[in-house]
Amino acid sequence: MPYKGFGNENEVFLVGRVLRDRGIGFSTIEDSRFRNFRKMYKRFMTWEIPNVTIKATLDGQEWLATTDDEGYFEFEIKNHSFPKTDNSWQKVKLELLDKIIPNQGIVQSTALVFIPTKLVEYGVISDIDDTIVPTGATRIWEMLKTTFFGNAHSRIPFEGVSAFYQALEKGTDGKENNPMFYVSSSPWNLYDFLLELMDIHQIPKGPLMLRDLGLSREQFISGSHFDHKLTQVEKIFRLMPDIPFILIGDSGQHDAEIYLQVIKDFPGRVKMIYIRDVAENTQDKIKQITSEIRALGVELLLVSDTIVAAKDALSRGWIRQEDVLEIIKEKRKSEDS
């Protein structure tokens, strides 16, 4: 199971996992709550394949990595010579070199790696839970019910999110070159589920930065929500050194505080912060953080819905008027359905 990678012309970061195939497949809108639960159960009850070798191949170049105790493998490819193209997405062939079962045959897959072209205007880093799709992340039982009994069809993003993210990906030239990154505290077990959700609801593809469950490579449950997200966001900034970023999150957890730290660590790299207002009694805290961020030369806008963020982005010359009209159209369609 390769996860989408990313990097620059000098270094690429690519991770994935070797697991027994549980035959989960795609969901349908007709799937029952029991069927959804059974598929989600399989996602968490994984059979990992440790201590096996993976070969990555691109344009005649080869690299090797070994899976850890939980089946994860990681490539940090440096001084590569990826072919220069106008396409941001490069394909890396992955192959399992070890024999796990008798008569195994060839086990291989293809990983997508984002390498920015010169047409990039800016990048976008977004949270997922309660930023793109309602999950009740601050209410544990509601979140568990939503996670285990829904599927990619029944989980509906906030109105206008799909069109807004498409507008950001296209920027002002109308070409889909701006990189989109999604950083979440959701576990890697939900990777295929989140990819399916984004595909069904037409949210632009991009690398997902999730975290491990249990005794991970880093520490128990990959550390705190704050530490995990800060580490992943700053990894993106490091591997995309020449690109400014728009950061999007919500008020339910610690996104504003995390983004404040990013601004301190990478001055001059953040264009704007949009925070979706989803939690009660957080306005005073957000107001204080907004003042700290403004003092560092960046604006934070607390928004009630996607249209507010889209109109602000339009006023700053980051997206096109016609795309804002599509966002309004999508939001009205969602409200009428």
Summary of the model, kept short:
This protein has 2 domains: 5-114, Immunoglobulin-like (Sandwich), CATH 2.60.40; 123-336, 3-Layer(aba) Sandwich (Rossmann fold). 32% of the residues lie in helices and 23% in strands. The chain is built from 9 helices and 13 strands.
Characterise the protein shown here.
The chain is of the alpha/beta class. The chain has 2 domains: 5-114, Immunoglobulin-like (Sandwich), CATH 2.60.40; 123-336, Rossmann fold. Helix content is 32%, strand content 23%. It contains 9 helices and 13 strands. It has helices at residues 33-44, 140-149, 161-170, 191-200, 225-239, 255-265, 283-295, 306-315, 321-336; strands spanning 5-7, 11-17, 53-58, 61-66, 72-78, 89-96, 108-114, 123-126, 180-187, 208-211, 245-250, 270-276, 300-303. A 7-stranded mixed sheet has the order 4-3-6-7-1-2-5, with no helix packed on it. Strands 10-9-8-11-12-13 form a 6-stranded parallel sheet. Strand 1 (5-7) and strand 2 (11-17) form a beta hairpin. The longest helix is centred in the last third of the chain and has 16 residues, at 321-336. The protein is globular. The chain starts with a strand and ends with a helix. This is DUF2183 domain-containing protein. Residues 122-277 form the Phosphatidate phosphatase APP1 catalytic domain. Pfam families: APP1_cat.
